[in-house]
Design brief:
Order of helices and strands: HEHEHEEEEHHEEEEEE
CATH class of the largest domain: Alpha Beta
Helix content: 10-25%
CATH superfamily of the largest domain: Schlafen, AAA domain
Shape: elongated
Strand order of the largest sheet: 10-9-8-7-12-11
Largest sheet: 6 strands, mixed
Length: 231
């Protein structure tokens, strides 16, 4: 089932009353300029497909500001128009919430596989805050568009089985195996530390890499295909 579909109104009410955290934020009507930034930050930072929630029309305590429920429709149109300025476009689902104290909107934004998205600048979530993405964070977001880049980033800081395959022009292949620690990955290359923690960092083009699984060690295996050479 789509994670967004599992968010009932009751679940949204709980998030509304709870404290803000990585994937919940509340914005009042007067802060229109912050709506797009928050939505883009959620699309860039939430796990892909995981629903983050932006509550629009509430104060810091989660109390709805809209007393006239009929005005929610025009508010939803306004929110949709503002979020349409994200590039590339982001998916969002706008739901009206009605409480005894008033009404507000719950804007559900899942983590996007088409990241990074921009609102003039690109934003990410750092704990309970929305911040401008650094150059390193932006590179990682771009890498997440690639399935291999995404998988490698999931293993950042972890050890993998490092298998080098060096084919010769005569058709033979020399294969060597070692251990490496994934450091980071961007849209172009992977950075690893091969061997112990004192070893220098090395970087390899993503086009050289292929992923597998080391069942004996129960961890990711990274194949490195070196260009053919003479025997």
């Amino acid at each position: 089932m789509n994670p967004i579909e599992t968010l009932s109104d009751e679940a949204l009410f709980i998030r509304l009353r709870d404290t803000e955290h990585d994937f919940v934020e509340r914005k009042p009507l007067a802060q229109k300029g912050d709506w797009l930034q928050a939505a883009v930050a959620f699309a860039n930072s939430a796990p892909i497909g995981w629903p983050a929630v932006l509550f629009v029309g509430v104060d810091d305590a989660g109390v709805p500001q809209q007393k006239d429920a009929e005005k929610l429709e025009s508010l939803a149109v306004s929110v949709a128009g503002i979020l349409a300025h994200a590039y590339p476009s982001i998916y969002f689902d706008i739901r009206p919430l009605h409480l005894e104290t008033g009404s507000c909107l719950a804007v559900i934004i899942p983590g996007s596989s088409n990241r990074p998205h921009f609102a003039g600048k690109s934003y990410v979530r750092v704990g309970p805050q929305t911040k401008e993405a650094s150059e390193e964070q932006l590179s990682e977001l771009i890498a997440q568009r690639s399935s291999i880049g995404w998988e490698l980033l999931q293993s950042a800081g972890k050890q993998v089985t490092w298998t080098i395959r060096a084919p010769y022009l005569n058709g033979s292949v020399r294969e060597s195996e070692s251990e490496a620690t994934i450091i980071t990955c961007n849209a172009h290359f992977l950075t690893v530390r091969i061997g112990n923690q004192n070893a220098p960092l090395s970087s390899f083009p993503l086009g050289w890499l292929e992923l597998g699984f080391d069942h004996r060690s129960k961890r990711l295996r990274v194949y490195v295909h070196i260009q053919p050479t003479t025997a």
